[in-house]
């Protein structure tokens, strides 16, 4: 009788151990599944059309796209906009599209920033931070250079004046010179 009781207790302990192992596995799986996906160089950039962005999105298919994430409270973001305006002026006719996406939660701060700087390129707002979470934007500002095939070719965190401008121009020139993807 005592042997049978010990077997039951051992079986119960094994079941508890299995239950705890299973519970930890489910917890780990939940953390992995809910973790943001970091978009890296070489990855396909998420479709802007389905990101729920506020504003008018220009045509981007088959174009080189600079997607810049910014905020009205970000000093380097203010510095970057005149550089992006110049890039827009210099390269739009050759296939560059500049899309600046605000992460501002306050629509008034967003509108005041846009009104003050009056950028000539597309400016949208990611009100619900859907796209920001999807690509896991690491800092403000962060810009992604996307090749004509929709894949990220370069990623720049922060904006460091002429240094960033030179690096962007060099990479953009390479991307614009590349042959468009065949249909």
Account of the 3D structure:
This protein is 45% helix and 16% strand. With 183 residues, it is α/β, with parallel strands linked by helices. It folds into two domains: 1-35; 48-177, Glutaredoxin. The N and C termini lie far apart (77 Å). The model is unreliable at 4-9 and 17-36 (pLDDT under 50).
How is the secondary structure organized here?
Layout: H1 2-34, E1 64-70, H2 75-91, E2 96-102, H3 107-117, E3 122-125, H4 130-135, E4 142-146, E5 152-157, H5 162-177
Tags for this model:
Glutaredoxin; 5-stranded mixed β-sheet; about 180 residues; globular; alpha/beta; 5 strands; 2 domains
Number of domains: 2
Note the quaternary state here: single chain
Low-confidence stretches: 4-9, 17-36
Mean pLDDT, to the nearest integer, reads: 84
Q: Look at the structure and give the CATH class of the largest domain.
A: Alpha Beta
Beta content comes to 15-25%
Overall outline:
globular
How many helices does DSSP assign?
5
Q: Give the N-to-C terminal Cα separation.
A: 77 Å
Short description:
The chain is of the alpha/beta class and 183 residues long. The chain is 45% helix and 16% strand. A five-stranded mixed sheet has the order 3-2-1-4-5, covered by helices on one side.
